[in-house]
């Protein structure tokens, strides 16, 4: 009985991570995207992130049609997996017609920052076609982190391996990577990171911000890295046109990493606007309730320091949640 359940679980993971994204990916993109939209009608496609998004998002944003929203969430996850299948079959500098780029990367080194929003592989392809290596900052994961889902572990490993192929550099897995990142920036190699990391996943250096009208926090590691290296911060994101399946990689204007609190507030505002524009494209709805709870202490400490006119000591980093 247990072995039968495990087999069904493995087959389901293989279906949604590999087979369902792979089969339509051989078709012309307009037809492939119609296939993904059709598959996204079914509740067994990416049930966990979809259930989390449908349960959480309506408490913060107007979601008039939850069934349509669920279909959009499944579409984003399916297309993200399809992007990997497409990427694996092409040269590192290939960019398809259904992905556009708006903006220019600056010359020299910089820290590119984005969010767990929409589909993420295209930034590395765009940098490669411009002749740029890059180093991705990522959290290391192990087989045990995936419990009874080894297929998911293999998928995540394949995805990170593809990023290394595209970027031309090994990924930098936290912690203990500051010297390597500083060395890459000193050689003119951009560093790529994501900013929307809750305290559960990035407990150090969290600073209070507001997101979706609620107290939240963002880590300052990427900002401090840019400040120490004397390089700019470059925000970027991928806009997702759910009606057509088109994506647009948007490269924002380079900004100074100082003052850190103002930069983080600006980045939080960018993420807020993106989530409000296409709520289904944010991949971290599952983290959002706990994220707010962890941020409450930071906001309370910041308020107390302000009320005391700076006489209080800086608050300690938020502790990592227990599983």
Helix-strand layout with pairing:
Elements: H1 2-22, H2 29-39, H3 47-56, H4 66-88, E1 99-102, E2 111-114, H5 122-129, E3 135-139, H6 150-167, E4 172-174, H7 178-186, E5 191-194, E6 206-211, E7 214-219, H8 221-229, E8 233-241, E9 246-251, H9 260-277, H10 288-307
Parallel strand pairs: 1-9, 2-5, 2-8, 3-4, 3-5
Antiparallel strand pairs: 6-7, 8-9
Organism: Dokdonella fugitiva
Protein name: KDO2-lipid IV(A) lauroyltransferase
Structure description:
By secondary structure, the chain is of the alpha/beta class. The chain has a domain at 95-307. The protein is 46% helix and 15% strand. It contains ten helices and nine strands. The chain has helices at 2-22, 29-39, 47-56, 66-88, 122-129, 150-167, 178-186, 221-229, 260-277, 288-307, and strands at 99-102, 111-114, 135-139, 172-174, 191-194, 206-211, 214-219, 233-241, 246-251. It has a seven-stranded mixed β-sheet, with helices on both faces. The chain has a two-stranded antiparallel sheet with strand order 6-7. Helix 1 packs parallel to helix 6 (150-167), helix 2 crosses helix 4 (66-88) and helix 3 packs antiparallel against helix 4. It starts with a helix and ends in a 16-residue tail after the last helix. Residues 303-323 have low confidence and may be disordered.
Characteristics:
KDO2-lipid IV(A) lauroyltransferase, 10 helices, alpha/beta, single chain, 323 residues, 9 strands, seven-stranded mixed β-sheet, disordered C terminus
| Rg on CA atoms, Å | 20 Å
Q: Give unreliable regions as ranges.
A: 303-323
Major beta-sheet overview: 7 strands, mixed
How many helical elements?
A: 10
Average pLDDT metric: 92
The amount of helix comes to: 40-55%
The largest beta-sheet arranges its strands as 1-9-8-2-5-3-4
Sum up the overall morphology in one term: globular
